[in-house]
Amino acid sequence: MAIKNLNAVARWVTTAAFLSTSLVRAQVPADIEAQLVKIGHIVDPACTAKIYRPLMPANDINSTVTPLYPGVAIARDLSFGPNPKDLVDVFSAEKGGGSRTVLMYLPGGAGNKIEQQNREANAFMDNIGRWGVKNGMTVVIMQRHPGANWDDPGRDVSKMVQWAQQNIAKYKGNPNRMFLWAQSAGNGPLGIYLGRPELWGPKGVGVKGAVSMSGQFNIAPLQVPGAGRGPAPNQPGGIFYGAGATCGSDGPASTAGLINGPSRASAGAEGGRAGGAPAPPDAATLAARSSLPELRKTKVKLLFASAELDPGVDGAMSPFYQLLHDDLCKNNPKNCPTMLYEKGESHMSEVFAVDTADVSVSGPILAWMKGVK
Question: Is 340 helix (H, G, I), strand (E, B) or coil?
C-alpha cells in the first residue's frame, strides 16, 4: 500500500492510516523550524549543518574511533566503474541476516558522498547510511562526477545499479529489492537513468522505486511554469544569496574544516561538463533526450518530495513535480506518483534531518518504501 498525495505531515491520519502513531505526529521541532525559516528559501549548507550536527552522533568521518558507528559496517570507496571517481560507500549491518532492501543514494550539490563545505557538513551523507541500516536496509552512497556527454550521468547510475546487482549480496542486500533516492542536482542523473532504457543493464531498470527530492530533469515537451527565470545564484533573490548570514559562515563556499583523502572527490559542474554550463539544447534535441515517454509507462514506483522552504516553492509542491505528477497520473493512472510536501523543511534540512529526531522527511519515505511491492 503506497501513500498517495501526501502533502503534509498533518494529513497522515487521513491519507495513511497504517502509519504508526509516532510517525503520524512527526514534525520539524519548533525551535529548528524557526531557525530554518530565518535562513529562508535559499540553499545554505553551512548554517543548516550547524543546526543539525548537534543531533548527530559525536563521531563522524573525521573521527579515528573503531567502529565509527556501532552496529554499522562501512566499506568506503568501492569502485563500480572505470572512472577513478566511480566510487560508492556501502553501509550494512554488522549483525543479522541478509536479503535486506537496498537504498542507493545520489547526493545533490557537487555530488560528494561526504559533504565538503565545513566541519559540521562533513558529517553528511553518512547520516543516510546510518538511518538506512537502522531501518533494516543496506545503503549505497554514490559519488557523482563529470562526464563528456549529456547522458553520462545516467550511464554512471546504470553502472552503479549493475554493480549492486552483482555485489550487494556480499553486504547483506537483496539485489531484487532496490531503490534509488536523489536530492537536488542528483535528480539529473536519476531522471536520465529512469527515462532512457538504452542505458539499463541486461536485467532492466533494476529498481522497485525511486525518490526524486527537490530537483528537476528533462520532461520535454512539458514546460514548467517560470523555468529558466530568476537571478543568478549569488545575486539578490538567487538560491545562494545570503547563505551563511544567520550563523557567521562564509556561505556555500566555506572551506572551514575541509578534509582531504579519497572521499574528497568532486562532481564538478552539474550535467557532466566542467568549465561552466553549455548552451541549452534546442527544442528538438530536448525532446529526443526527454525522460517523459518512458516515465509515462514505467512500472517503477515514484515518490516526489518538495520542501516548504525550497527555492521556488510557495505553499505547495514545486511546479515541476506538480506538472509531472499530473501528467503521469493521466497517462499511467495505475502508477500515479506519491507526493510528499515537507512542511517546515528546507532544501538542505530535508537531507541533514535524516537520522535525527526530525523524522518529518525520513518517516514518510520509509513508510512509502515499505509499502512498495
Answer: strand
What is the reported pLDDT for 259? 60
Q: Is 253 helix (H, G, I), strand (E, B) or coil?
A: helix
Contact 302, 267 (CB under 8 A): no
**pTM of structure:** 0.89
pLDDT at residue 257, rounded to an integer:
67
Torsional sign, CA 267, 126, 303, 196:
positive
DSSP string covering 20-74: -HHHHT----HHHHHHHHHH-SS--HHHHHHHHGGGS-S--TT---SSSSTTEEE
Domain 45-296+311-319 has CATH 3.40.50: yes
DSSP annotation of 201: B
In sequence order, which residues have a C-beta less than 8 Å from that of residue 260 and are 6 or more positions away?
none
| Order of strands, sheet of 338-342, starting from the edge strand that comes earlier in the sequence | 72-79, 87-93, 137-142, 100-106, 173-183, 209-213, 301-307, 338-342
Query: What is the enclosing helix (H) or strand (E) of 350?
Result: helix 349-352
Report the alpha-carbon distance of residue 349 to residue 361 in Å, rounded.
Answer: 9
- What number is the average pLDDT over the span 163-182? 98
CA dihedral 17, 21, 24, 29 (to 10 degrees): 180
Place of cell 527530492: 213
Beta partners for 148?
none
ω into residue 221 within 30 of 0, thus cis?
Answer: yes
Whole-angstrom Cα distance, residue 354 to residue 238?
26
Q: Where are the domains of the chain?
A: 45-296+311-319
Assign residue 137 a region (left: φ > 0; alpha: ψ between -120 and 50; beta: otherwise). beta
Three cell numbers at 241? 544569496
Residue 33 CB burial class (10 angstroms; 0-12, 13-18, ≥19): buried
